Amino acid sequence: MSVANMSESSEVLVSREGAIVTLTINRPRAKNSLNRTVFDGLRAQLAQLRDDDAVRAVVITGAEGVFCAGVDITAFEVLRAAPLMGDRGPTGWDFFSELGRFPKPVIAAVEKVALGGGTELALACDIVIAGESAKFGVPEVKLGAIPGAGGTQRLIHALGKSKACDFGIVAEVTADGQALPTALAMASRIAANSPLAVVLAKDAALASFETPLAQGLEHEKRNFFVVLRSADNLEGQAAFLGKRAPNFTGH
To answer: Could you tell me the pTM of the whole model?
Structure first.
């Protein structure tokens, strides 16, 4: 595969074979998590590819066999300062909508993990090809946050409510007599997360059934910036960076 004749950053590698261009997120030590440099690199490449008539399709993947473990949590500090409503200026979150509107087919090649922003990145693509061991998820509530780039919207639009919320009408099959304790155990896991984040995540998910996608995405984004200002999110971020479990108390 030949290297494309276009500029690239060390964190977004570009290769081209015929009419196909592959963009590779190259932050393997961070499991290819997304930061501002990656967003800017991907955005710049897509801007060039949009007007290149010789390019027929784009593939997005991650270096060293890992797709993307999400958004670099340190980026929250910048996002937290953005206006709550209205124009927030250029942020990485805008990239997902730009990718969703990209006129040429975009395929996500997913291996190992696509978590948080990684799942949202895959959902913004037109087609997802995944290795059999690939894992998807939007676990932001564990950090006192919610998905902010389509995780509660595109997932439901793509799968429908039951599959998006439970990955099937039945979330889990248990032995006879074990339904209640299993349900209680699941409730306990949910309760261990930030209560504000859980409420806002569900609120955003429910909004997707009553609004067009564009309006639902703005609803989700508003909730994301609300929860980003919460004590739970600050605690979850500090706990993550300190590698300790957060102690959400229901702020």
So the answer is: 0.60
